[in-house]
Amino acid sequence: MQTNLASWASGTDLGNEADAILRRCVHCGFCTATCPTYQVLGDELDSPRGRIYLIKQVLEGKEPTQSTQQHLDRCLTCRNCETTCPSGVEYGHLVDIGRKIVDERVERSWGDKTKRTLLRKAMLSPMFAPAMRLGQSLRGILPQALRRKVPERRDAGPLPQVARHDRQVLMLAGCVQPAMMPTIDAATIRVLDAVGIGARIAPGAGCCGAVSFHLDAQGEAVAQMRANVDAWWPLVQDGKVEAIVMNASGCGAMVKEYAHHLRHDPAYAQKAADIVALVKDVAEIVAPHADMLRSRLPAGTRASFHPPCTLQHWQGLRPLSEQLLVDLGFELQPFADKHLCCGSAGAYSVLNPDIALELRDRKLGAIAVGSPDVILSANIGCIGHLQSGTDTPVRHWVEVVDEQLRRAAQG
């Protein structure tokens, strides 16, 4: 694709990055076949190719409008198009640039701005956990639209003493997972303990930055990235941990991009690159121990595995994760369109509920054909979103493995 950037964009870091990405696009349109919003809306401007043209026009000097902003907002940032693209277009980075530039030039409506600000601040607030516990206690009487955002609370259970292990890893506390689904972190610690690895959370580490980054606060997101690097760095530098383990693929995808987002920061660029080299999804850590765990697990659990977009398209870990589950004894049921987004996409399901619910129902309809006993996934957002539309249990795979190990230990 030929480009002619406007003077204000030419020669800048963002302009140079966007220009290099745009020039790789060959207009083939393969991306439209795998774009969830195009599948739902059928509008070229709600496809990657259409959004690429919109961003190109803005970078070449055309003034963006609220319509431009809306088309960019509707992108789920699933990066399915990147998996499909034969030219290697880094669409995810391009849409980040496009959103930033458009948001600087287009004033959002008061209602839209308020919703996005409140959503961001609520999820990052220390009051989120007590508010979630209150919501869970009142879940039975909440309106349906709110109830589907409040998961049932389950007991996290006791945690082992992990300091005894020679192998140690760090985990990310995150922002909403400890309050919404504390069982995921507890299960991760116990499963890693079962294979001889101690997992702990570094004081001072918090939200990965994804919430702020995708809700018009990229500056705040970068500050959160630096805070996490600072929290992890002393332990990483001393060689006390072998990995930073992620059990929410959305967080893992974002942290693996720290080196990209901090590449122009002389104080953090190298540290971020060193951190990224240590980041592993929990499946990557457990996979080498699958045979040992298999001997303690039952075989034949009928399950469908929904690979989150941040796992399969951002990190390329769908094959490893699916093979791990097979190696652990699960009978995975195939279903159609496994590559398509479920519609959760962080805050997307709140901001674009109609599209999100249609994608959710499509996904659940495809999964239902296999009649699984449980739906497995690897990201809290997908788990909560899918559970809101089905009576079939939707769990993080590490929770189910943990439950099976605990039942086996009890005889």
Number of contiguous helices: 24
Portion of residues in beta strands equals: 5-15%
Number of strands: 8
- The termini sit apart by 64 Å
The computed structural class is: alpha/beta
Q: How would you sum up the major sheet?
A: 4 strands, parallel
Low-confidence stretches: none
Helix coverage percent: 40-55%
Kindly report the average pLDDT value: 94
Q: Which shape, going by the Cα principal axes?
A: globular
Rg is: 21 Å
Q: How is the largest sheet built, in terms of strand order?
A: 2-1-3-4
Attribute tags:
4-stranded parallel sheet; 411 residues; single chain; alpha/beta; 24 helices
Report on this model:
- The protein has 411 residues and is an alpha/beta fold.
- Helices cover 52% and strands 8% of the residues.
- The chain has helices spanning 13-22, 36-41, 48-59, 66-73, 80-84, 91-105, 110-124, 128-137, 144-147, 177-180, 182-194, 210-213, 218-237, 249-255, 258-261, 269-278, 282-286, 290-294, 309-314, 318-327, 348-351, 353-368, 380-387, 397-409; strands at residues 167-171, 197-201, 243-246, 279-281, 301-305, 330-332, 374-377, 394-396.
- The chain has a 4-stranded parallel β-sheet with strand order 2-1-3-4. A 4-stranded parallel β-sheet has the order 6-5-7-8, sandwiched between helices.
- α23 (380-387) links the parallel β7 and β8.
- The longest helix has 20 residues, at 218-237.
